[in-house]
Design a protein that fits this description.
By secondary structure, this protein is mainly alpha-helical. The protein has five helices and two strands, in the order αααββαα. 70% of the residues lie in helices and 5% in strands. The radius of gyration is 17 Å and the shape is elongated.
Length: 121
């Protein structure tokens, strides 16, 4: 099993762009998690996380819903890294695009989390 995983993720380790994007993405995820965790206890009981909904009570959720974007970053990272590893042999460019898109998505979620926390705290 270990050999399979090592061979499966070998393109992500050997390609410089994919590797750097993944490492920076993980660093930003950890930074976001630490920021949210530090500020979590100073948040009010309800925060506006669901900004796509119309005005009213539907836009707000309990303060633990601030962790939903963080879980989304984990899902994005794992899925895009898996897709990058699967298609690297056929299309290295597309794999690199997945890696950079992952980085940009995680960066935007960091900005979203910081703005929401600073808005309500």
């Amino acid at each position: 099993m270990r050999k399979f995983m090592k061979e499966f993720f070998n393109p992500a380790i050997t390609d410089r762009i994919i590797y750097k994007s993944t490492v920076v993405s993980i660093f930003i995820m950890l930074l976001t998690f630490l920021y949210v965790l530090i500020r979590f206890f100073s948040l009010p009981p309800f925060i506006p996380v669901f900004n796509q909904l119309p005005w009213g009570n539907d836009r707000i959720g309990p303060k633990f819903t601030i962790f939903i974007p963080l879980l989304t970053t984990v899902l994005i990272l794992v899925s895009n890294l898996t897709l990058s590893s699967l298609i690297y042999a056929k299309s290295p460019l597309l794999s690199r695009i997945f890696a950079v898109t992952t980085l940009l998505s995680i960066l935007l979620i960091l900005i979203f989390s910081v703005v929401i926390i600073n808005l309500v705290a």
